[in-house]
Design brief:
heterodimer; A: mainly alpha; 8 helices; globular; B: mainly alpha; about 80% helix; elongated
């Protein structure tokens, strides 16, 4: 167990092992996403109320799902950075923060596209929308802080502190935004609760969520590898890798 | 800035207890602040000016102002605390006092807590004192003004405490001011929601005890956790250059 933990700290080891399983992540992810999308868009039954417009959930829900869990993953990596000073952990945080930002934006954007025909407006100050918007700000702050600090090590640790402060605040923000919304107006619009969905609708949804997780894993590996190459450019193994094309 | 205006911190002996050290830091910060009085006035002037913009920019109608007044005052207070945060560590960082503080044998988070309390007494507290006057100007009724002052009294220390983390993280960076706002504003949202929500509830005649209790909980949480995060951030920023 501890041996794996120590190995994980070595960028070279990670580079080698990730190269081996990345194709599987990509192929599996794309297949699941395709299956989910085709099933969801073409074969799943129409919603009796919303018609075909509900089908955007096959993009919207996976993006929103992942946008939130990426932040939790970043927070776990931030703890590892601060406690064990593991190099890979801060490479991970730096690599996935922009991905999280894009996913959050995608969730908001697809939500707006869905909201236009369903609610008749692009945006309402609903609790869920607002807390996703704040999540977008948090991601933006993490990226901005990372870019602002030149020294790599300080940047990693400062970002780790910020991510942890953010993760303590996320539940507080979520609950206060929900409270704020119910104070001013009752929840007029609610997404249909998941259990009320028939299996033909939620199985493809599950497939797309899993697929997006795998694609995210692949993307994280690619971005981490790039980051590792640029950080370790002075080491011998990187030079050998560039010359020979393998580790 | 001449050296006389900024006395050194003198607590280097470990025989000085943590409480005495906190008192020393607090007293020094107050002394420094009162030797540069203009710096104390600036956030207050900013507060008044932001509030002035709303009747000019949106509507001077009594009905609008009395409804939106509490929110306007809260947003203005939040912004002026944000503006003043840059001063919290900046001067001490520039002249090396901060490094001395970090080297003290007393726990750093306690010293930061003392600095933050001093910062609040110099910015947050004057805002609360000024609020009744501005409250009358935006046509809030007496009860609302009293509740608003109470929420600001509980809320502004939270703003200072959370802000200390951001100020510590952005210390010594280019364009630290804008970055500080980007990092901190999302974290201020819960305080703002409950601050204005309390006044709205009071205006509807609902009991406000629960709201104030929740704000008190925010204060306790910030008081216990924020100094640790700020201390960690400060150490990182100081090792940065």
């Amino acid at each position: 167990m501890w041996q794996i933990f120590h190995k994980l700290g070595s960028p070279k080891w990670f580079f080698g092992i990730s190269t081996r399983f990345m194709p599987w992540l990509l192929v599996g992810g794309i297949m699941l996403l395709l299956a989910g999308a085709v099933w969801g868009l073409a074969f799943a039954p129409k919603d009796y109320l919303q018609g075909n417009s509900y089908r955007i959930i096959y993009i919207h829900v996976p993006a929103a799902f992942l946008a939130q869990s990426v932040y939790i993953m970043m927070a776990s990596a931030a703890i590892v950075t601060l406690v064990w000073r593991m190099k890979l952990a801060d490479v991970f945080v730096k690599a996935v923060a922009p991905v999280g930002l894009v996913l959050t934006f995608l969730a908001l954007f697809t939500g707006a596209v869905w909201g236009k025909p369903t609610w008749g407006t692009w945006w309402i100050w609903d609790a869920r929308l607002t807390s996703m918007l704040i999540l977008l700000f948090l991601y933006g702050g993490v990226i901005a802080l990372d870019r602002a600090i030149n020294d790599e090590k300080s940047a990693a640790r400062a970002v780790a502190v910020l991510v942890l402060v953010g993760v303590v605040n996320i539940p507080i923000i979520k609950y206060s935004v929900e409270w704020w919304n119910t104070l001013h107006q009752p929840a007029t619009f609610k997404l249909t609760e998941k259990p009320s969905m028939p299996a033909e609708m939620w199985v493809p949804l599950l497939l797309s969520v899993l697929g997006l997780y795998l694609v995210f894993g692949w993307l994280a590996c690619v971005r981490m590898q790039t980051e590792i190459l640029s950080r370790e450019q002075r080491t011998r193994w990187v030079k050998e890798f560039v010359m020979k094309g393998r580790v | 800035m001449n050296a006389e205006a900024r006395p050194a911190v003198r607590l280097a002996s470990s025989s000085v207890g943590a409480l005495a050290a906190m008192k020393g830091v607090f007293a020094r910060d107050m002394k420094v602040a009162f030797r540069q009085r203009q710096d104390l006035l600036n956030p207050l002037l900013f507060f008044i000016m932001v509030v002035t913009l709303f009747p000019l920019g949106v509507s001077p109608e009594v009905s609008f102002l009395s409804e939106a007044g509490a929110g306007i005052l809260w947003v203005a207070a939040l912004l002026s605390v944000l503006l003043s945060l840059d001063h919290l560590f900046r001067h001490d960082f520039d002249d090396g006092t901060l490094e001395q503080l970090v080297l003290q044998p007393q726990p750093l988070f306690l010293l930061i807590l003392a600095k933050t309390v001093a910062h609040w007494m110099l910015t947050g507290l004057p805002l609360v004192v000024l609020t009744p006057v501005l409250g009358v100007m935006v046509h809030l009724d007496g009860n609302s003004i009293a509740i608003l002052c109470l929420t600001l009294l509980i809320g502004t220390p939270v703003l200072s405490l959370i802000g200390a983390i951001g100020a510590a993280l952005t210390l010594g960076l280019r364009s630290a001011g804008v970055l500080l706002s980007l990092l901190i504003i999302p974290l201020y949202i819960p305080v703002l929601i409950f601050g204005t929500g309390t006044v709205a509830a009071a205006a509807e005649g609902a009991p406000v005890g629960a709201y104030l209790a929740l704000m008190g909980a925010f204060l306790m949480l910030a008081l216990t956790l924020a100094p640790f995060a700020a201390a960690a951030a400060l150490r990182i920023s100081l090792s940065n250059g």
